[in-house]
Specification:
Number of domains: 2
CATH architecture of the largest domain: Orthogonal Bundle
Shape: rod-shaped
Number of strands: 5
Helix content: 55-70%
Structural class: alpha/beta
Bound molecules: fe (ii) ion
Number of helices: 15
Radius of gyration: 44 Å
Largest sheet: 5 strands, parallel
Distance between the termini: 100 Å
CATH superfamily of the largest domain: Hypothetical protein af1432
């Protein structure tokens, strides 16, 4: 389809010359004798280009230019001017005209100017189209990325759940072999979290501490049944074997990336505040906070849970024992936080993971 060009001039001779010349060049041409008529044409059909005289009696070319720029941004405007009007023509270009023709002109000049103007229009349109496509593409990719991110977050979440389930299964297996009661490891890890939170510990440290508490006795895998399950007191040699369990646990878990920060709790969970614990005899704050918290709740849980050889002791008895050992076995600041937590809160945690004696083994 040939490009539509609107010729606007109050002089009929110029209009005819231009329109006939442009038709010969193959353009689809319409004519108007002033700005108002021109706007009428623009309303009725599409044009690519307006060739407009500047000096016209009703609605001059500059006014027409302004209107076309605002209402028809896709239509290019080339101004036609007498020699004396070059100043005006330049002003018109600053206002958005594409080019100008100076009278008198020859048709070859007209042809070149029109071709340039149409070419410029084509490039502008193409560029705009490209931008639009680009924006659509960016939008499309953004949506894709958001969806991908959600998918990854979801996978991560599921991976974490799967980690937790595996760890809890492992801890439950350990509990059964060691104390013949289940739930101990999960309870001490829950208790540890209660105190750690109160002491201002947040994730990811909170999760690291919790996992350390959950797996504290994993090293007992390496202790023989003869020692681990011996009903009476251990001999000095048996104690030496038993006391290796924190280091065995450390070795078993080292190399597991997501447990790496929980290792300090596993290796230090038998340390005592006064330095009389093992394996390293760490003292006070040399013992990681998670292990200092663990020591208190391990005693609490051991005393308030049923054992094959005795029934659970009361919370009050455990509390007195913990107070008695503050500053000796336990960090006084942890004991203080422990004491600030109402007994019912502890009982609630215990209730979520009750002792489940293995009926086959219970005497
Ligand atoms: Fe232990």
């Amino acid at each position: 389809m040939p490009a539509g060009i609107l010729v606007v001039d109050d002089e009929a001779a110029i209009r005819d010359l231009l329109s006939e010349g442009l038709r010969d060049m193959g353009y689809d041409c319409a004519v108007a004798s002033n700005g108002f008529e021109a706007l009428d044409h623009l309303k009725r059909r599409q044009f690519s280009l307006v060739l407009s005289d500047i000096d016209m009696p009703t609605m001059d070319g500059v006014k027409l230019l302004q209107t076309v720029r605002e209402a028809y941004p896709d239509v290019e405007v080339v101004m036609i001017t007498g020699v004396v009007d070059v100043e005006v023509a330049l002003r018109a270009m600053r206002m958005g005209a594409n080019d100008y023709l100076t009278k008198p002109f020859n048709l070859e000049e007209v042809r070149l100017t029109v071709e340039n103007a149409l070419e410029k229009r084509r490039l502008v349109k193409e560029n705009r189209e490209y931008q639009r496509n680009l924006e659509a593409k960016v939008e499309e990719r953004t949506v894709e990325l958001v969806l991908k991110r959600r998918e990854i977050e979801d996978l991560y979440e599921r991976l974490q759940v799967s980690y937790e389930t595996t760890l809890e299964a492992l801890a439950a297996a350990l509990d059964t072999r060691d104390t013949e009661t289940q739930g101990h490891s999960v309870r001490v890890s829950d208790y540890t979290v209660v105190i750690a939170r109160r002491m201002g510990v947040e994730d990811p440290e909170l999760t690291e501490i919790r996992r350390g508490a959950l797996l504290h006795d994993v090293g007992k895998i390496g202790i023989s049944d003869a020692v681990l399950r011996k009903p009476g007191k251990l001999s000095p040699e048996e104690w030496i074997e038993m006391r290796k369990h924190p280091e065995i646990g450390y070795r078993i878990l080292s190399g597991i990336k997501f447990l790496e920060k929980s290792l300090p709790i596993v290796i230090a969970h038998q340390e005592r505040y006064d330095g009389s614990g093992y394996p390293r005899g760490l003292k006070g704050e040399e013992i990681p906070l998670g292990a200092r918290i663990f020591a208190v709740v391990d005693t609490l849980d051991a005393m308030t849970s049923d054992r094959p050889y005795r029934r659970a002791l009361s919370y009050e008895t455990a509390r007195q024992e913990i107070i008695r050992n503050s500053g000796i076995q336990f960090d006084p600041s942890v004991v203080e936080v422990f004491l600030s937590i109402p007994p019912d809160d502890w009982k609630a945690v215990h209730g979520r993971n009750p002792d489940r004696r293995d009926p086959a083994r219970a005497s």
